[in-house]
Design brief:
There is one protein chain. This protein has one helix at residues 28-36, and strands spanning 12-15, 47-51, 66-73, 79-82. With 87 residues, it is an alpha+beta fold. The protein has one domain (8-72). Strand 3 (66-73) and strand 4 form a beta hairpin.
Amino acid sequence: MNNKPYDPELLYVECERCGQPVLWNPGDTTRILAWAGIDAGELDEKCMLVSDGCPACQPGKSSFNTQVVRLRRNAEGRVRAQRPPVN
């Protein structure tokens, strides 16, 4: 068992609108998670970030909402995102 904390900079970031990977500058993920009050120690390789847009599909826009999702396998063995409930 590996007790070494997962590096949040390794999280995959994807645009929910167009499905493209989103590339951030080094350190951005760590800063965003800290600003949002998310404990990076709770994240692992099954987590990813999903953005509600990106510069590729929304040119001119520079700020996007993001959320952390945890991937899990469903009964058919397919991977799907387990999103937090919407309030």
